[in-house]
Amino acid sequence: KMAAGEAAGRYRSTMSKSKDPSGLLISVIRTLSTSDDVEDRETEKGRLEEAYEKCDRDLDELIVQHYTELTTAIRTYQSITERITNSRNKIKQVKENLLSCKMLLHCKRDELRKLWIEGIEHKHVLNLLDEIENIKQVPQKLEQCMASKHYLNATDMLVSAVDSLEGPLLQVEGLSDLRLELHSKKMNMHLVLIDELHRHLYIKSTNRVGQRNKEKGRISSLVKDASPVPLMDVTNLSTPRKFLETSQFSTPGSSSMRETSLLEIKEDTELDPEENSTLFMGILIKGLAKLKKIPETVKAIQDRLEQELKQIVKRSTTQVADNGYQRGENLSQENQPR
């Protein structure tokens, strides 16, 4: 027993020095290998067996003494192990669910992008259909504007319609006839505007002077004024040049009409467009600018200038002669041959 105790003590001292269990095995192997004969080995073997038996007895005693704590520790360990296992399984399931969600989200994102693109396409198609519907009504509206002489609205409508038909709606085959019709009207629109401009520039402006002169002659005949007919006063007539002057060239006492810029001209569809002749000529010039026909307008004015001035002289001569003849008739009726 003493030998077994010494062996056990030796093994325990070896274990205390080295926490590695393989150290004890190496020590036993070294002890057995250094033995000279079989008897020493058997003796060493017996000592080991006695030491292990004593360890078993000591372990059994410790287990008996600490049975309750050991049982509780084992159960706690089992519970912890089960919880860890369950947590691992749940985490694995969560990872699988996350991967599945990620795949689904990728699919949903592609579907949403596709739907968004389709929505934009449908919106664009609807806008094109609305534009086509509006353009189909352009000929009728254009005819109404031309009849009421709202030329600026007519020009804006026509230019916008032609730009759409020759731009975004160029591939629409069903609008080919309408495209040709409106393009033809746009090509000839400036001719109407130039005729209106000449009418106000040469005819309507001189008619106002003649009308004013006629009224003066009527007043003079009522008061039996035998003085000759007064000359036409054309110094206060509004002209396009005066109308187009900006505020930087105008004097402090100038009228607000002369300070108006051509870009600020707007057409009131509720009023008679020809009520203000100067404003009407500004509208005509703005319409010609939108049609990009200003060079043609200038050329037409230059070509027709001599002819129109001759017509003014002819009309004025006829007007003066008629007024003189009427004045003579009135005087002869009053027995005043002079």
TrEMBL record:
<protein>
    <recommendedName>
        <fullName>Exocyst complex component Sec8</fullName>
    </recommendedName>
</protein>
<dbReference type="GO" id="GO:0015031">
    <property type="term" value="P:protein transport"/>
</dbReference>
<keyword id="KW-0268">Exocytosis</keyword>
<feature type="region of interest" description="Disordered">
    <location>
        <begin position="1"/>
        <end position="21"/>
    </location>
</feature>
<dbReference type="InterPro" id="IPR039682">
    <property type="entry name" value="Sec8/EXOC4"/>
</dbReference>
<keyword id="KW-0653">Protein transport</keyword>
<dbReference type="InterPro" id="IPR048630">
    <property type="entry name" value="Sec8_M"/>
</dbReference>
<dbReference type="GO" id="GO:0032584">
    <property type="term" value="C:growth cone membrane"/>
</dbReference>
<dbReference type="GO" id="GO:0090522">
    <property type="term" value="P:vesicle tethering involved in exocytosis"/>
</dbReference>
<feature type="domain" description="Exocyst complex component Sec8 middle helical bundle">
    <location>
        <begin position="273"/>
        <end position="323"/>
    </location>
</feature>
<dbReference type="Pfam" id="PF04048">
    <property type="entry name" value="Sec8_N"/>
</dbReference>
<comment type="function">
    <text>Component of the exocyst complex involved in the docking of exocytic vesicles with fusion sites on the plasma membrane.</text>
</comment>
<keyword id="KW-0813">Transport</keyword>
<dbReference type="GO" id="GO:0000145">
    <property type="term" value="C:exocyst"/>
</dbReference>
<dbReference type="GO" id="GO:0006893">
    <property type="term" value="P:Golgi to plasma membrane transport"/>
</dbReference>
<dbReference type="GO" id="GO:0045202">
    <property type="term" value="C:synapse"/>
</dbReference>
<dbReference type="GO" id="GO:0006904">
    <property type="term" value="P:vesicle docking involved in exocytosis"/>
</dbReference>
<comment type="similarity">
    <text>Belongs to the SEC8 family.</text>
</comment>
<feature type="domain" description="Exocyst complex component Sec8 N-terminal">
    <location>
        <begin position="46"/>
        <end position="144"/>
    </location>
</feature>
<dbReference type="Pfam" id="PF20652">
    <property type="entry name" value="Sec8_C"/>
</dbReference>
<dbReference type="InterPro" id="IPR007191">
    <property type="entry name" value="Sec8_exocyst_N"/>
</dbReference>
<dbReference type="GO" id="GO:0006612">
    <property type="term" value="P:protein targeting to membrane"/>
</dbReference>
<feature type="coiled-coil region">
    <location>
        <begin position="45"/>
        <end position="97"/>
    </location>
</feature>
<dbReference type="GO" id="GO:0007268">
    <property type="term" value="P:chemical synaptic transmission"/>
</dbReference>
<keyword id="KW-0175">Coiled coil</keyword>
